[in-house]
Amino acid sequence: MTNVDRVNLAREVAIVTGAGAGIGAQCAAELARRGARVLVTDIDGAAARAVAEDIGAAARHRQLDVTDPGSVAEAMDDIRNTWGDLTVAVNNAGVGVPVPLRLHDIEDSEWRRVLDVNLDGAFNCVRAQLAAMMQAPKREDGTRGSIVMMGSIGSLVGLPCASAYVTAKHGLLGMTKAIAIDYATEGIRANLVAPGYVDTAISRRSASTKAALAAKHPIYRMAEADEISGIVCFLASPESVFVTGSHIAVDGGYTAQ
User: Fold this and answer.
1) What is the separation of C-alpha 64 from the centre of its chain, rounded to a whole number of angstroms?
2) Could you tell me which of 237, 249, 229, 240 has the C-alpha nearest to residue 88?
3) Catalytic residue ranges
4) Which of 178, 173, 181, 176 shows the shortest CA–CA distance to 255?
């Protein structure tokens, strides 16, 4: 493909969920650095506001509960009223596994919590995002938008004592493939990013934990958040216009083992 600007995302209007910290915050900041206008959202409204204020004029913020379709609809209205047509959606909101358990020990409430946020929450968001993107006219290259799901190595392989999480993240990959097929002719692409363990606050519980997580990767370290956000920006850009229904493992070789 010729004449592709590999950096400039100035035409893009984006939403990032779970952007109050970690990977989501880095994705929002990097999208904005490359020219996009970004709605920074998080269940923690104060955290979303802090990230947006750090980014500056290219960002707005709002509190968003992905498990509440009404909250998602309000975010879509905010984007349209402020910037116009949504073109990039990064569905990053999720919860991890606070206590490792085998499946027969998982309480109903914990199973439901993980699925509600990680899978049903993504459904609530992407349903509204697709409807918003389809309102926009197609661009000259036939595209309307790009949806990026934040999966995990748990989207590709099993992880010990994390049944609910692995189920939800595998479901995200299936959802991504279904969207790619169903909306290809609408000019909407969908792809999934599958990070390994990332060196964010959630993984810095102790020096020994950090070392143990790093050792799981053949590259023998965890990823940095900006190593994930760069892939997200690639999937948001015209450079990836022929990429849809795919997953990109950003895992330091974890799933190659």
Assistant:
1) 14
2) 237
3) 165
4) 173
Compute the chain's Rg from CA coordinates. 17
**pLDDT > 90: percent of the chain:** 90
pTM: 0.95
- Higher pLDDT, residue 230 or 98: 230
- Alpha carbon distance 219, 203 (integer Å): 17
pLDDT for 1: 44
What would the two tokens of residue 57 be? 């004029």
At 73, which helix (H) or strand (E)?
helix 69-82
Determine the residue type at 18: G
Which residues 6+ apart lie within 8 Å of 226 measured at CB? 26, 30
Average pLDDT (218-234) is 94
CA distance 40 to 56: 11
| 135: DSSP letter | T
